Amino acid sequence: AADKVFRQDSKTLESTYRSTLSTGLAKRKFSTLANDVRRRSIIDFTKQNNKRVVDQSNANLNRQEDKFLQQSSDPTLSVESRAIAFNNGLASFEAAAANIGYAEAESRREKFIEAVVSNTLTNQVNQPGANALAIIESFRTGSSADPAIQQISKILSADQVSKIADGALKAANRAIKARQDAAKQEEAEANADNDALHNYIVNVDLSDPLAVSLAEENHERLLQAGYYETEAKRRAVENLLNTDESDGPFKATPE
Length: 255
Known about the structure:
Layout lengths: L1 H17 L5 H49 L6 H22 L1 H24 L6 H9 L6 H7 L4 H45 L6 H16 L6 H11 L14
Helix pairs in contact: 1-2, 2-3, 2-4, 3-4, 4-7, 5-7, 7-8, 8-9
């Protein structure tokens, strides 16, 4: 529509200025030059207009793809809801093909299918208590307990399945390592805090009743945390504070 309007306007403009010329030769020369300018202008306009159409189609497709990808790979939704979202996602690529190009639409469609499966696996293995390795291996062998994954896997090649499974396994290993590192960091921080409590105890001013009372509270906290690795270390604190906590827990150090 925009292209048609542009062509009509350019012809109207040419006719208006041509009518102001007095001689036939001038009018013919003007028409020749005007036609050349109009032809080049139409080509440029068409290119720019097509680019705007493609850009707008891509923007719309991006929004639809993000929405349907999120819904298709959400394991908290029903299998039916995820299937509807998946099919809507495929339909959106078909609808955009005429504007963005059929090759581009097909390429994005393939990536969408892989992303749905990959994101679904990631979401599944991140569920509390999930057996990540078992989930990924069942997908790799075609025995996933997820009906949606099973159905989509039928349109994937063996290479695609292997690539997705390998990627999911790497992501799962990174997540496991991140949790382990976080646990180690938390333990290290807890140990540092406990070391500070122990240091306060062994350096307490025994002539200060309030300081001694606080040291005794710290000692109790360390007992509950299992801080004392040997009975001798615990006894040393108890002797210092003149307490008797012989039944408190402690971590035995391997001989």
